[in-house]
Design brief:
The structure is a single chain. By secondary structure, the chain is of the alpha/beta class. The chain folds into 2 domains: 211 residues, Aldehyde Dehydrogenase, Chain A, domain 1 (3-Layer(aba) Sandwich); 179 residues, Aldehyde Dehydrogenase, Chain A, domain 2 (3-Layer(aba) Sandwich). 46% of the residues lie in helices and 16% in strands. The protein contains 14 helices and 16 strands. The protein has a 7-stranded mixed beta sheet with strand order 10-13-14-9-8-15-16, sandwiched between helices. A 5-stranded parallel beta sheet has the order 5-4-3-6-7, sandwiched between helices. Helix 2 runs antiparallel to helix 4 and helix 4 packs parallel to helix 5. The chain is globular.
Length: 397
């Protein structure tokens, strides 16, 4: 069966099923979610081992924390709320239609296409499916091109638990071909470049698409905030999964005169988590191309005069394991690669500021970030930064 046929078969099956049985019962939806939970619970070790092999090195604890546990939590959350979410809701009727009633009835869309990236290969494949199945839809998932071995495992597990008319995983299909199908809705997570391809292909069928794209997410430490606390709270999400996270803090602002203090605390804290770049709990960079890109980014910062600090003892990189030690890059210039492209790795640029107005101006001169992180205990500072910038989401510490 060709990749195209492998996609068409489940699509046609799901399309027919969605038209013949448009409103799966609440119990059917709960049963589907329970099947998914059991699939995950019963195959934790196989999944962790497959993702370790896929990355070339990723702690099973990290996979549990970042992928399996959130998925299981999402299933539990959805099962408890399906009845409420699906309940018809009364709406006001104007005088023109006096005597009539008006209801909003949640309706399944039908067949949902899910396109996933490589960095959280399980969570970002199945998380949209949880929402879609809870809403009474059917799903077909296209996993990232470089995750095909893992994709075959997930396909095997899904096929053993689900009827193809409900949920299917498709190996070896291009994003363009997948997006060209007449889906009732699509969910895409990934880069802006691939997102444009997906949107262009989907537009031919007027398919509505939900996009979650990357970007350079700034973090701001306000003058009132304790530097040690900031270092502790900020370095954990930044260097988790070796920084290969779409909402990872991409660059950091600290008040002028406090960089040295922040770096000192960051070095102590990160060093207590990983003894060296060879540590087994330090996640590998996903592939050779990404590894080469990040090494070039680090070299570019050094060549252009930035202060580059390895937060671990010993070597900067582990060539055999494709690992890069967490680094900070102090006061990088805007022409450095690290300040131009989304980093997607364990490198943290630190910029200093005299006033928060400088920070706001810097952020607003660039593309809107996916996330913005504010470290401040001052309500006025929090509100100023929140209302003077625009981003996909804001987290206040």
């Amino acid at each position: 069966m060709t990749p195209s046929e492998r996609l068409q078969a489940p699509y046609q099956t799901q399309y027919k099923a969605s038209r013949q049985h448009a409103y799966p019962s609440i119990q059917e939806r709960k049963d589907n979610l329970e099947k998914l939970a059991q699939l995950l619970e019963n195959n934790k070790e196989r999944i962790c081992a497959a993702i370790y092999k896929y990355y070339g090195g990723r702690s099973a604890n990290e996979t549990m924390l970042l992928e399996l546990t959130p998925l299981l939590g999402s299933v539990t959350y959805a099962k408890k709320r399906i009845s409420k979410w699906s309940k018809p809701r009364s709406r006001h009727v104007g005088l023109t239609f006096k005597g009539a009633s008006n209801k909003l009835i949640p309706q399944p869309k039908g067949v949902i296409g899910v396109v996933t990236p490589w960095n959280y290969p399980l969570f970002l494949a199945l998380s949209p499916c949880i929402s879609a199945l809870a809403a009474g839809n059917r799903c077909i998932v296209k996993m990232a091109a470089n995750s095909q071995n893992l994709c075959r495992l997930i396909d095997e597990l899904v096929s053993a638990s689900f009827d193809e008319a409900v949920l299917a995983v498709i190996p070896a299909t291009s994003a363009r071909e997948f997006s060209s199908m007449p889906w009732d809705h699509m969910v895409f997570t990934g880069s802006a470049a691939t997102g444009k391809i997906v949107m262009e292909a989907a537009s031919k069928n007027l398919t509505p698409v939900t996009l979650e794209l990357g970007g350079k997410s700034p973090t701001i430490v306000a003058p009132d905030y304790d530097m040690r606390t900031a270092a502790e709270r900020m370095t954990f999400p930044k260097f988790l999964n070796a920084g290969q996270t779409c909402v990872a803090p991409d660059y950091l602002f600290v008040p002028e005169g406090k960089v040295e203090e922040f770096v000192k605390h960051a070095k102590n804290i990160v060093g207590s988590r990983y003894d060296s770049v060879n540590n087994q709990d330090l996640t590998s960079i996903i592939d050779e191309a990404a590894f080469t890109r990040l090494k070039a980014t680090l070299a570019d910062a050094k060549e252009k005069g930035a202060e580059v600090v390895n937060l671990l003892q010993g070597d900067d990189v582990n060539e055999a394991g494709q690992k890069i030690a967490p680094h900070v890059i102090v006061n990088p210039s805007d022409d450095m690669i690290v300040m131009q492209d989304e980093i997607f790795g364990p490198l943290l640029p630190i910029k200093t500021y005299k006033s928060l107005d400088e920070v706001v101006e810097f952020i607003n001169e660039r593309d809107r970030p996916l996330a913005l992180y504010i470290f401040s205990n001052n309500k006025k500072t929090q509100n100023d930064l929140f209302y003077k910038t625009l981003s996909g989401g804001v987290c206040i510490n």
